[in-house]
Inverse folding.
């Protein structure tokens, strides 16, 4: 499975650890940066990962900043993205099972490597449950369409 990953400086170290560990267990990980611990602007990286996931529906994305909040906000601006900020394995599992989250957002200044990897594995190991949860996602999609200029959920305005 292909996973796009990105972080700002606050998530850089954790992003590197997750990238290496995921590659080590067979995931095809594409890194959108950042590539140093120097200060940078998280929206520039968050939007790239989100657009890559939106353009390739069979893929997933992982974003990391200090709190995870900024990355979650920017990723969720991209049509088709359901980015979930998780801080424990319960949220990581159920954001996939109930919300079909295609981007997992982690708070790099809040969680350590072990907890982060446990969350990533819980999310990757979970499956969308469908049923009533699909109905709720359809309602979210309706909101997305309502506020989209093009009226579609395509990531067409790059
Ligand atoms: C960077 O200092 C910090 O603001 C950023 O990593 C993130 O937490 C924003 O939401």
């Amino acid at each position: 499975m292909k996973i796009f990953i990105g972080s700002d400086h606050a998530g850089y170290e954790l992003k590197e650890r997750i990238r290496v560990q995921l590659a080590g267990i067979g995931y095809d990980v594409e890194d959108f940066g950042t590539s140093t611990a120097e200060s940078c602007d998280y929206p520039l990286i968050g939007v790239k990962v989100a657009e890559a996931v939106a353009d390739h529906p069979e893929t997933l994305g992982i974003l990391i900043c200090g709190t995870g909040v900024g990355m979650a906000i920017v990723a969720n601006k991209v049509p088709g993205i359901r980015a979930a900020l998780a801080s424990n394995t319960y949220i990581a599992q159920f954001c996939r099972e109930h919300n079909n989250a295609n981007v997992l957002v982690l708070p790099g200044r809040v969680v350590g490597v072990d907890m982060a990897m446990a969350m990533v594995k819980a999310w990757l190991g979970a499956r969308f449950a469908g049923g009533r949860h699909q109905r709720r996602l359809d309602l979210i999609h309706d909101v997305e369409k309502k506020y989209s200029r093009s009226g579609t959920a395509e990531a067409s305005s790059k």
Q: What stands out?
A: Strands lie at 2-7, 28-31, 60-65, 83-85, 103-107. Residues 145 and 151 are 5 Å apart (CA to CA). Residues 132-146 form the longest helix (15 residues).
